[in-house]
Specification:
Length: 317
């Protein structure tokens, strides 16, 4: 029977860790005393669910946990330190402390050591997660006792929701690109300015068409995905981020006249490359009257208009 140890202190254990070609002893006090720590424990390094889902998502959400006051995110497994070190190098684990419970002492003390001899694993940790504050277990999420390797409640998103139900996980953004493509560069820059942290996957001409076609049904780069949703190319991204702005700086107008035809019969069309920060629509429509008098930005956070703003004189066709 698995034990829920909420309200109890974590076991007093010393972990044998290999670091920089030297042995190092790490105690539970080193890990937990005076700290808020998220721990997730799993059956084994390099195993499928642990490598494909459990560890990567905790690593991805670690910065979000940090903003919520979590000092460290610890991944524990009944493996020796050499295996855990190699697994760390093989995984996205930059934000995670991988802890070897080689003898299973910590797992046994938590009441989570189980026998997996039927699959040749011997004694291993059951899969669970917990929030520990100053050495005391505040909350545990223990996978249900059923056959196989259940993975239902110990995931990173469940822990994040427990710590702060209003917290927003970082968006998952991927840009399939072509090396040197100016549209790809512009798309990535636009995502950056909007607070996204996109992963760029450059594709060479030997596979680009087939890969982009397979994942998006399109044939051009860039192709952008946000949280599993296919956005499309640069124009589609601009349309998604379209913001109406009621003012444009005079210097911006001057730059725009070099590359675009400006229509003054009641409205102004301005290409996105000349739109100020926070105004990234594909075609910005501005009444001429708005350029002749001060106005209040319709979108919170936009810069205030210049009271002396006037249209720049230039020839029109």
């Amino acid at each position: 029977m698995l034990q829920n140890r909420e309200g109890q202190r974590v076991p007093n254990v010393t972990f044998q860790v290999r670091e920089n070609n030297a042995w190092k002893q790490v105690t539970t006090d080193d890990l937990f005393k005076g700290k808020t720590v998220v721990v997730f424990s799993l059956p084994g390094a390099f195993t499928p669910t642990c490598s494909s889902s459990h560890l990567p998502r905790y690593n991805e959400l670690a910065p979000t946990f940090a903003r919520l006051g979590v000092d460290n995110v610890v991944c524990l497994s009944v493996n020796d330190t050499f295996v855990m070190n190699e697994w760390a190098r093989d995984q996205e684990s930059a934000h995670i402390v991988l802890l070897p419970d080689g003898n299973g002492e910590f797992s046994a003390g938590m009441g989570m050591l189980v026998d997996k001899s039927n699959i040749g694993f011997g004694k291993r940790s059951w899969r669970y997660s917990m929030l520990v504050r100053d050495g005391v277990v505040q909350k545990m999420f223990i996978e249900p006792e059923k056959d196989g390797d259940p993975f239902e409640v110990s995931d990173a998103d469940t822990m994040l929701s427990y710590i702060d139900a209003t917290a927003k996980a970082p968006d998952q953004v991927v840009v399939f690109s072509k090396p040197g493509c100016p549209f790809c560069i512009e798309a990535k820059a636009l995502l950056d300015t909007r607070g996204y942290n996109p992963i760029e996957i450059p594709l060479d001409n030997n596979v680009r068409g087939r890969v982009i076609g397979a994942v998006s049904g399109q044939g051009t780069a860039p192709q952008i995905f946000i949280n599993g949703e296919h956005i499309g190319g640069l124009d589609a991204l601009k349309a998604r981020f379209a913001v109406a702005c009621s003012c444009v700086a005079r210097s911006t107008l001057r730059l725009a006249t070099r590359n675009a035809r400006l229509h003054w019969r009641g409205r102004l069309l301005l290409p996105s490359s000349r739109i100020p920060d926070r105004c990234s629509s594909a075609a910005l429509v501005i009444p001429r009257a708005a350029l002749r008098k001060p106005c209040v930005p319709p979108v919170p956070g936009l810069p205030p208009c210049c009271p002396k703003l006037r249209p720049h004189r230039h020839s029109t066709t």
